[in-house]
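**Folding the chain**
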Amino acid sequence: MKYWLVKSEPFKYSWNMMLKDKITYWDGVRNYQARNNLKNMKKGDLVFFYHSNEGKEIIGLTTVVKEFYQDPTTDDDKWVVVDLKVKETLKRPISLAEIKNEEKLKEISLVKQSRLSVMPLDKMHFDHIIKLSNEI
C-alpha cells in the first residue's frame, strides 16, 4: 500500500462535496508529475484530501477504488483520473502551518513542492499526520 495527498480548492471541490458524492473521479490534473503520481496509485492506497488556498489543511481521508483511466473532461489522452472513495473525516484538520512546524513533516512534498496537486507520502509521514489528527 502507498500513501498520497491530493489538493483541491474548496470553492471548486470541497471535502463536504466529497462527503456528499462518496465516490468521485479526480480530474483536472494538468501537470506531468502530478499525472504520473495518479498513474502510480493502486486500488486500496490511502489518500489525504487537502483544502488548498482557502483553509490550507488536511481535512479527510479517501481510498483509491479505481486505478487510472482517461480523464473524461478532456479528449487529450495524456491526462488521467483515478476514482477516490470517502474513508473518513479526520478527527481534527491538520493545517499547513502545523505541518511546517512539525520537525517530522518538514520534508514532505506539501512543504517542498507546494504547487504540486497530487503527491506521494511516506508511511512515516502519513502515520504522523494521523497521530496529530487524533490529538484533540
